[in-house]
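Onboarding guide, step 5: your first structure request.
Type a short instruction followed by the sequence, for example:

Predict the 3D structure of this protein.
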Amino acid sequence: MGFAGLVPLHADPTNQPPPLTWLRLLTEWKWDWLFAVPATLGLALYLWGVWRLRAQGVRWPAVRTWSWCVGGIGTATVAGMSALGAYDTVLFSVHMVQHTILTMITPVFLAIGAPVTLLLRNLGKDGRRRVMRVLHSWPAKVLFNPALATALLITTPFALYLTELYRFTLDVDWAHDLLHVYMVTVGCLFFFPLLGNDPMPNRLPYPMRMLLLFLTMPAQAFLGVTIMGSPRLIAEEWYLAFNRAWPPAPIDDQYLAGAIMWATGDLTMGIIMAVFLAQWYADSRREAAREDRRLDREERLAAQRAAAGSGPSTGYDDATGGREAATPDEEDR
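The system replies with structure tokens like these:
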């Protein structure tokens, strides 16, 4: 088991970690406040909210808890504090795995965890009203606009790797940390309205959501192939300055990074598409069940009106047109 003191927080050519082996890849860990503090707070607050609901006898789906704690917080912690975080500035391929996790995997599980819904169920009436007011404010509508989130998800990798921006994030520690925050944020802005169960200011119909998912897939693959075929090293001076004696060679590492972006991009989007289709199917079944209950209710009311019309006339008109009002329980079903 690796120790945090054996690897630098931000490795650079003058402060290098030891050679990366398969054993170190699986066991190396470092301490990073950027990931440790949000992960601890996110876990503690979420589990506290679940505990409060259960104390009140309110059921909270276990799949949401596991998605938030393990799939969301867990994958972010692995991306930032395992060997992926220790070697993300040393090997471009390691950075690409980290990029994929923080952008495409962690946000998906966070969205499925439905943290806003959990918050709303733990608040009183006034608190819920204030949260909903924030969700429907114009800043929230702009931030969670699906077109904006899709554009950011597609264009950010191109702007990062095909310009000097990536080299800047390697040279400047705060920019490197900010990039991690940005990756998770963009992923959340994209996936929360598409896959999440939370109330959102902009909620598209399922066909439009599928279109947005399809738009992101070829962009990832195209950039991955471009990186694989590039004869010039990205951030060349940075990676050559390490003068590593252990594999892979910088150009082979870049080829591997492009292949990771291409393959994992398609793989993760395929998994996300499967989750999306499952949600669409479940919502369709719930909508069909609601429609069946509505039709049954109308047939029942029609039969009651027919029975009342065939009996003795009382001459009484209650101004409802003979329609019996549905009970609150019927309206909810």
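Each response can be followed by summary notes, for example: The chain has a mean pLDDT of 85.
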